[in-house]
Amino acid sequence: MSMAFDASSQASDEVLLVLYGNGDRGAARALALRFTPLALRVAARMLGDRAEAEDVAQEAMLRLWRVAPEWRQGEARVSTWLYRVVANLCTDRLRRRRGVGLDEIAEPEDGTPGVVERMIDTDRASALQDALDALPERQRQAVVLRHLEGLTNPEIAAVMQIGVEAVESLTARGKRALAALLAGQRDELGYGHG
Question: What pLDDT was estimated at residue 58?
Fold first, then answer.
């Protein structure tokens, strides 16, 4: 038996996961539409590599499907669990890649934007990603989850398995480090005008 797609898209994450665990393919589709973009976005921010982020998002969703039959409602939010899985997969990849020198990493592909605003946005996004890449892993993870994904400090604490005070410290240090890394680029990135 399968739930109608429009009904499943309004069901809670936990209900959908339990339904999927019981064989409901409509619930699987709703979960994939709901969570794959989130997993991809977080992984891309943490890794700075879209192809690697796609692999991480796919692996995270596979792990979600595997855990569905044993999911116990009320123990954790599905999104918190997924953020933790994505963060752990990204951390593993970052640790494996540490031996690679900066000169060996390919430059990100730059599309051919049609307008000046698109070029400025691309430069700003690239500068932000470069600055994020320069942060220590835990600071990067906290900053991405708080300031780019909009999670609350208690949610981040659950994802990172640390206390709220540690989250506050990591995000504060990460923000200061980002500000320092980006400070000399205001004019170059179009923030010094008007």
Answer: 93
Average pLDDT of the residues in 61-88: 85
What is the CB neighbour count within 10 angstroms for residue 5?
Answer: 12
| Per-residue burial over 80-114, b = 16 or more CB atoms within 10 Å of its CB, e = otherwise | bbbbbbbbbbbbebbeeeeeeeeeeeeeeeeeeee
Residue closest to 85 by CA, chosen among 43, 48, 125, 122 = 43
| pTM score | 0.59
Closest CA to 79 of 156, 162, 153, 147: 156
pLDDT at 167: 93
What is the amino acid identity at position 96? Answer: R
d(CA 26, CA 32): 10
Q: What is the mean pLDDT of residues 176-180?
A: 89
